[in-house]
Amino acid sequence: MDEKQVVKVSKFLSLVLRHNPGAVGVVLDEGGWVDVDELITACAARGRRFSRADLDHVVATNNKKRFAYSEDGRRIRASQGHSVTVDLGLPPATPPDVLFHGTAAASLPLILREGLRPMSRQDVHLSADMETAIRVGSRHGRPAVLEVDAAALVAAGHVFRVSANGMWLTDSVPPERLRPMPR
């Protein structure tokens, strides 16, 4: 499987496992899991063919660690970023004092006015390092990075969880807890 195919399968799996499982006719359970064999068969029936070995390669090599297998390896799910309702079962966790959020520079004025909201996702996604935030922000043009005062949010009662791929999740971040980072 070449890199172009890996990216193509990864993007398609993101669509199916995060946003539209019905696109291939599968149903995610309450935790976002689907049987691997069922997923492969359903995708093949809709012209998206890949083997278990291909899927293993995509899961293992995705630099964002978007997907995770269950402990027994029979089920797969997206690690975070769902727009469909799932309960990832992630326990509350204490984040570092400072987290980061990457976005498009064009979105900055609205975010500084209204804060961070999940929009079409279930959670606001934050990273522990600026490099990840820059990469995330770059997906939609010139990136902007916001520093998030996570310590103050915890003190105010905000709950954080950390996903399997290391992203920090919370329900919202008010504007007074955001600071644009110079670039």
Task: Give the tags.
ADP-ribosylation fold; Arc Repressor Mutant, subunit A; 2 domains; 183 residues; alpha+beta; 3-stranded antiparallel β-sheet; single chain; 9 strands; NAD
What does this structure look like?
The chain is an alpha+beta fold and 183 residues long. The protein folds into two domains: 3-78, Arc Repressor Mutant, subunit A, CATH 1.10.10; 98-180, ADP-ribosylation fold (Alpha-Beta Barrel). The chain is 32% helix and 19% strand. The protein contains six helices and nine strands, in the order H-E-H-H-E-E-E-H-E-H-E-H-E-E-E. Strand 7 (161-162) and strand 8 form a beta hairpin. Keywords: NAD, Transferase. Pfam families: PTS_2-RNA.
Please give the CATH class of the largest domain. Alpha Beta
Largest sheet: 3 strands, antiparallel
> pLDDT average, as an integer?
95
CATH architecture of the largest domain: Alpha-Beta Barrel
Helix fraction bin: 25-40%
Count of beta strands: 9
Please indicate the count of domains.
2
SSE string, helices as H and strands as E: HEHHEEEHEHEHEEE
- Based on secondary structure, the structural category is alpha+beta
Q: Which geometry do the CA atoms define?
A: globular
Strand fraction equals 15-25%
Radius of gyration: 17 Å
Give start-end ranges of low-pLDDT stretches. Answer: none
With helices defined by DSSP (H or I, 4 residues minimum), what is the helix count?
6
Strand order of the largest sheet: 1-3-2
Report how far apart the termini are.
37 Å
Provide the CATH topology of the largest domain.
ADP-ribosylation fold
